Amino acid sequence: MPIEYRISLDAEHEFSYRIELNRVYEPEAAKTAPSWTRLEYQKCSNCPLSKDDFSHCPAAVDLHRVIEDFQGLPAFTKALVWVRTPEREYTKTVGLEEGLRALLGVIMATSACPVLSALKPMAHNHLPFANNQEFILRAVSLYLARQYFNYREGRHADWDLKGLVRMFQQLQLVNQAFWQRIHDTCEGDSNLKAFLTFFSMSSSMTYSLETQLQKIRPLVMSAGEGPDT
Q: What is the pTM assigned to this prediction?
């Protein structure tokens, strides 16, 4: 089941999106996308894709409709955002920046970009409007769950989270490049603000992971020790 978004600015301006979680790159669809979505345009420095196989950036192709829909609109514009995931529905009145951050994030994480695919587990458990603490808790929890299965299945387990930091360093390079793509094409600031907010949440995982962990420690440890310890 896809994730659905509906962003309503007023009675005459309502935008709906349907995000399939398992998408593939479609060369024919890419040909009709705007020039700023081409792979070589502001290409990410860590992009592993070849222009021989991908004429356009998969994530940019997926994003361009949203970027164009909200181009020229200020970030402080109030919007009613409705989201339906396979499990539940969410509704919240927010600044357009916050609504777009959630929408852009889930589209990027489910694109055919091999770097952004690291976020796909979070997209499959999508939590719109997540604050920084929730973002950190979910990212660390999913990463540690993966390490547990690595351990159980005889592979190396990264309990020190070094791989998590490296993963977000790679994602940060993508965020920076996308900010430049959007900056070059957008007149307003809503899309830029959304990317900057997403960028700041991601960068906190690379520059101050220990600080972020200390912020969530009281929540994680609030249950105390179990009866058998």
A: 0.87
